[in-house]
Amino acid sequence: MVGFVNNLKTVGLLAALFALLVFVGGAVAGQQGLIIAGVIATLMNVGAWFFSDTIAIKSMQGREVDPNSPGGRDLYEMVDRLSKRAGIPTPRVYVCPHEAPNAFATGRSPNKAAVAFTQGLLRLLDREELEGVAAHELAHIKNRDTLTSTIAATVAGIFSMLAQWFFFFGGGLRREGVNPLLALGMVLLGALGAVLIKAMISRSREFVADADGAAIAGSPDGLASALRKLESMARRVPLQQPNPAMNNLFIVEPFMGRGLTELFASHPPTEKRVAALLGRRR
Asked: Which residue among 131, 137, 206, 253 is the active-site one?
């Protein structure tokens, strides 16, 4: 039920995002300006989506492991077993040389996916907790959440593009008869709204991945326990030099304690995630 409700929420938020774009973009920039901004933002984000696995893994210095890798056999076989349970191809498995405990999944499709775990996470979690985290990441792959994030980022990117044009070119694409200050204000408010909706979409996908991950793992207990540990450690050992564009990929918010408010966060509060997970047993 949690997954169904949040899937509906995602659809509704995406619809709201597109409606905001049509209203603000059409009113301010007109059809021509909206098309130009849309094409540029789409090309940029589709390119990032197409190479998302390579970009993410390289930025985290991931090392691929397989059944023949020293110390990587157990991790790979666990991911392979859970992938079969989830009904998806086994993704490539990586270990990243970071002490901050975290994990992420990336890739444009289940056939082109990868999951990565930091060394800090592998040392921190026990077997059941690690299975819960891996199952959560496999749920993201199964649900094609990278594609959903790309769609949201593309629409938000159009607002950003329009705002930059107004700042640097004096509103050259502004529709005739529209006050320039009003037009700029509408674009900036639209951009803020798009960022908020994008963050809300990301949070809704985390709840879905938690619920589906618990089903894949066979129990919510491991993931719930892992989330508690990860939040506690993330405050003491922050992830060093993460790529901000990857923020929504990680299982817990990489920038905890750096001034992010819940409103703009890409992840729901951990206590709400744990409550939703454990509520599945009652």
From this structure: 137
